[in-house]
Amino acid sequence: MGKHSRPGPSNQPSRAVPRVDADNPFAAYDKRRRPPMDIYRRHRPAHGGAGHLRPDEPRVLEEWSGFAYEPAGTAPGLAAAQEWVNELQVGDDPAA
C-alpha cells in the first residue's frame, strides 16, 4: 500500500464521507447535521474501556440529535445494547 492509499477497493468511493446532493441548496447544511459515518445510535461501556470487553456490564446508549450524541438510556449488557442499536434500520433518519 502506498503512503496515501485508503483501505478497500480502489474503484469504490470512501464511506467515511457522506454523499452530497448537488441539486439540493441545503446540501452543505444537511452534510454537517449528519452523524459521523452515518451512525445514528451507538453504545459505550458505562465504566469506560473497550466496547467488546466485559459484555455483562451496563452500557450507555447514545443517539444522534443532529448536533451531537446525547444519552438516550442504559442497557444491562452488550447484547441488549447491540439490539437497541440495530432497531434502527440502515438508511433511516430518526430526525426526519
Task: Please describe the structure with a list of short key phrases separated by commas or semicolons.
96 residues, alpha+beta, three-stranded antiparallel β-sheet, 18% helix, extended, DUF6087
Describe this structure in words.
The protein is of the alpha+beta class. The chain has a domain at 58-95. The protein has 2 helices and 3 strands; from the N terminus they run H-E-E-E-H. A 3-stranded antiparallel β-sheet has the order 1-2-3, with helices on one face. The chain starts with 26 loop residues before the first helix and ends in a 9-residue tail after the last helix. The model has no long low-confidence stretch (mean pLDDT 79). Pfam families: DUF6087. InterPro entries: DUF6087.
Our measurement of the CA-to-CA distance between the termini, rounded to an integer number of angstroms, reads: 40 Å
User: Which percent range describes the beta-strand content?
Assistant: 15-25%
Helix content: 10-25%
Which structural category fits the helices and strands? alpha+beta
| Major beta sheet, strand line-up | 1-2-3
Total helices: the number is: 2
Describe what is shown at a glance.
This protein is α+β, with helices and mostly antiparallel strands and 96 residues long. The protein is built from 2 helices and 3 strands, in the order αβββα.
SSE topology:
Layout: H1 27-33, E1 41-45, E2 59-64, E3 69-75, H2 78-87
Antiparallel strand pairs: 1-2, 2-3
InterPro entries: DUF6087
Region (Disordered): 1-57
